[in-house]
Design a protein that fits this description.
Largest sheet: 6 strands, antiparallel
Order of helices and strands: EEEEEEEEEEEHH
Helix content: under 10%
Length: about 120
């Protein structure tokens, strides 16, 4: 196990069993959330250098980390952070070193080049 998502309103923890997981309403997702406001393939969690990152897959109701919406780039999810999938909130629990073998400082929170390429010239100025 590589960590867990703990529902903030109560309920059973969801184990993170792989280093890449798709979260959504479809039965083919790795983590299935059967809520009407969760998209078919809502977001993706993946490990990079011992830390979890989330990528929104164009969901209608959004993905947030600590209340900040995840846009076109990936966002690091540190231990103890709140991951919101639509309106459903989870505390993310894991140990970068013990669970995921992290060495050294955490990788950058977002992919700066990908974010830069996604902006117009006027936005960059």
């Amino acid at each position: 196990m590589y960590g867990e998502l703990v529902p903030m309103g109560g309920g059973d923890p969801i184990p993170l069993l792989e280093k890449k997981l798709v979260i959504g309403r479809r039965e083919t997702c790795d983590i299935v959330l059967r809520f009407a406001n969760v998209s078919g393939e809502h977001c993706e969690l993946r490990v990079d250098d011992g830390y979890w990152f989330v990528i929104d897959r164009g969901s209608r109701n959004g993905t947030k980390v600590n209340g900040v919406r995840v846009t076109s780039t990936r966002k690091r999810v540190d231990p103890g952070n709140t991951l919101s999938v639509a309106r459903h909130k989870y505390e993310v629990r894991y140990s970068p070193v013990d669970d995921l073998g992290a060495l050294g400082p955490p990788p950058p929170e977002e992919e700066p080049m990908r974010e830069m390429l996604g902006k117009s010239l006027l936005d960059r100025a």
